[in-house]
Amino acid sequence: MDDIYLTRNGYEKLIKELDFLKKEKRRQLSKAIGEARSHGDISENAEYDAAKEAQGLNEKRIAELEYKLTHVRILDYENIAKDEVLIGATVTLKDLDSQEVLEYTLVSEIEADYAEGKISVTSPVGASLLNHKEKQVVEIKVPAGVLRYEILKISR
């Protein structure tokens, strides 16, 4: 697996999720399994089956997070060009058709959250913006047609 680039906040978020799943969620699921087991025959106990399945999913997520965290590289803004759109950059764009001004931060797929303005560098928009500079116009092919953005500002 390739390195996974994360911002410091994205890294901290994964650490917190892992901590919650290992400490609190495991305890909750173990308790639910114990309660379901106390209801008698586990061979036909839907509560027990559901609790065991939830436990399995929790353990799978823990393993995924631990694996990802072993491949994380935290973005070091000191060593990344500030005049070019690269992962970790916040980009202010002007839609040349609607004149709307938009702002996105380019992040890895793991951190992407459109509601927070964080788009993946592998998304159509993110990938098209990469390696461009301020004042350049970028045309992006999307299923609905072609978007035309002017890069107004790049910041970190």
Which sheet architecture does the biggest sheet show?
Answer: 5 strands, mixed
CATH superfamily of the largest domain: Transcription elongation factor, GreA/GreB, C-terminal domain
Number of domains: 2
Q: What is the CA-based Rg, rounded?
A: 22 Å
Word description of this protein:
By secondary structure, the protein is an alpha/beta fold. It has 2 domains: 4-74, Helix Hairpins, CATH 1.10.287.180; 80-155, Transcription elongation factor, GreA/GreB, C-terminal domain (Chitinase A, domain 3, Roll), CATH 3.10.50. The chain is built from 3 helices and 7 strands. The strands form 2 sheets. It has a 5-stranded mixed beta sheet. A two-stranded parallel ribbon has the order 1-2. The longest helix has 30 residues, at 8-37. It is elongated and about 70 Å long.
Architecture blueprint of SSEs:
Blueprint: E1 4-6, H1 8-37, H2 46-70, E2 72-74, E3 90-95, E4 101-107, E5 118-120, H3 124-129, E6 137-142, E7 145-155
Parallel strand pairs: 1-2, 4-5
Antiparallel strand pairs: 3-4, 3-7, 6-7
Helix pairs in contact: 1-2
Distinctive features:
156 residues; alpha/beta; Helix Hairpins; Chitinase A, domain 3; 5-stranded mixed β-sheet; 7 strands
Summarize the structure.
With 156 residues, the protein is an alpha/beta fold. It has helices spanning 8-37, 46-70, 124-129, and strands at residues 4-6, 72-74, 90-95, 101-107, 118-120, 137-142, 145-155.
